[in-house]
Specification:
Layout lengths: L8 E2 L5 E2 L2 E5 L10 E8 L4 E2 L2 E2 L4 E7 L1 E6 L5 E4 L3 E4 L5 E5 L5 E8 L8 E2 L5 H4 L3
Antiparallel strand pairs: 1-3, 2-5, 3-4, 4-12, 6-13, 7-10, 7-12, 8-9, 8-11
Bound molecules: manganese (II) ion.
Length: about 130
Amino acid sequence: MEITRNATVKNPPEWFTGDVWLDPVTQPAAPGQQANAGIVRFAPAARTAWHAHPGGQTLHVLEGVALVQARGGAIVEVPAGQTAVCPPGEEHWHGAAPDSFMTHLAVWDTLPGQPSAVWGEHVTDAEYGAR
Ligand code: MN
């Protein structure tokens, strides 16, 4: 058994709006290892840019209310204790509600030779406010 503690890192502004921190749970993928997990903390109104995961992604909300949206769909509120499942390749974003912090556990698979996420444009204030 190995006990690890990865340092908190701030997510890069190229791919996020507002302050978002990541606590990696899993170590960088070893050969043959595909599952990855991290705890992500969003400040109020902070959110990812539009993106897709080639291997899909599962988001379990631990605190607050998450806002999630798939391209072409409505913005959905996901409260703590519920889970959003993003199929492989589905373009989406996720973030905090305007008035509170939100923390979710993110679990995703990396496919051989592919990035964990393919990033697009930022979610505009108009898109974020379109609830
Ligand atoms: Mn995602």
